[in-house]
Amino acid sequence: MQPPRSEAPAAEFDDADREALEKKIQESLETLSQIRVTVMNHESADEHVLQQRVDRLVRGYADMHLLKDRLNVNVPEEVLTYIKDGRNPDEFTSQFMERLASENQFTNGKISALTNFKQEYEAKIRELFPDEANERIGQQQQQQR
Predict the structure, then answer these.
(1) DSSP letter, residue 46
(2) Is the pTM of this model over 0.90?
(3) How far is 75 from 18, CA to CA, in rounded Å?
């Protein structure tokens, strides 16, 4: 059981662990690439080299396994589904950002429409009921401050 950590060191610790995990992932990808090349050009003399690379890969996976409990990373289910389907998670991020921008633009359009409606409504009220409107709108503006 690990001793409880305070909030500030936890953030630093998580960043260091995250960076260590990213480095281990990069190393594992490089090792996998080296294993692929070794297997594609397989000769009996390469067996020792292949064994070393597989051992390095297994050690890297073991190191990543040790880091997993010290990291607090939430991965959306949609991203995991993307990866399981063999698609690039960066594609998910790109599509998500496009959707977000579209929704933001839609929301800004609504805000703009409501602002215009409010201005026109206030102008019409002032035109039809000048005394009451000035008094009422003036009270509302003072309450907002």
Answers:
(1) G
(2) no
(3) 14
